[in-house]
Write a structure and sequence with these properties.
homodimer, mainly alpha, Four Helix Bundle (Hemerythrin (Met), subunit A)
Chain lengths: ~160, ~160
Amino acid sequence: MISEASFIDLALRSWKANVDRAGTFFSALSQEELQREVAPGKNRLIYLWGHLAAINDRMVAILGFGERLHPELDAMFVLNSDKTVHLTVSAKELKHIWDEINEAVWMGFCKLSPSEWLEKHTAVSNDDFIREPHRNRFAVLLGRTAHLAYHFGQAVLAKQES
Amino acid sequence: MISEASFIDLALRSWKANVDRAGTFFSALSQEELQREVAPGKNRLIYLWGHLAAINDRMVAILGFGERLHPELDAMFVLNSDKTVHLTVSAKELKHIWDEINEAVWMGFCKLSPSEWLEKHTAVSNDDFIREPHRNRFAVLLGRTAHLAYHFGQAVLAKQES
């Protein structure tokens, strides 16, 4: 009963738990609450939510699932700092985009075989991958799960008492 | 070339990257800097460092590697909120404890076979494990990696400009 699939399943559970936790948190916030900074002078909640959505959307391309769905997010939430660019997306739209992106990523995950999980992702060159075979799809999954947790830890500071 | 070991190796790399990142960050802080709160009224940096050390120390017992090394950390950094208990550990001591704990955890990790990674951890009963076989050592590794990232994301708010 031991197989690669068990380890992949556990990593997917961890991913999903972190996506769901963030989605539940951000979706429950009002438009006003989303304007709060996580600490004085730091990113606003809406920026963190958009940032996580954009980085998850990039996975669609990085993992070779197809073209990403919302490249327009990058200018607002990745390439520029918070409060330097006008946001053209509402909280309601972001909720829809969040669900759409994470469903696309999840569908891609579910189609991968164990050997495909260990293949290189598209942001690594063939030469680099020969030297660094750990730069594969599974590493992207683990790295992005930690990325979600990193920013979620920041987000809860704006909402909770401790 | 595909094996369970590849997936375990990738998860261990992710763990180590997160431990090293946190260790480098906290170790570089002065005693005064460690007194900073991550946001107004929130945990101080020294509390987060001690908390991460304590939770990692608990893994020694939870993963069945032996008795944990520093149970005295719990009263200061887990069971009670920050600023409610006098801290009897200095920054220098915490640095030593941090390294000691993470070395013990790492040595335990390196001795586990793939099948042992999928065995239940000691905080789950036999009955629960039959119903929920995903509550195994590998799940603890992934969960604690996310826990490190969650609090590290908070810690950097007290230090950096963005």
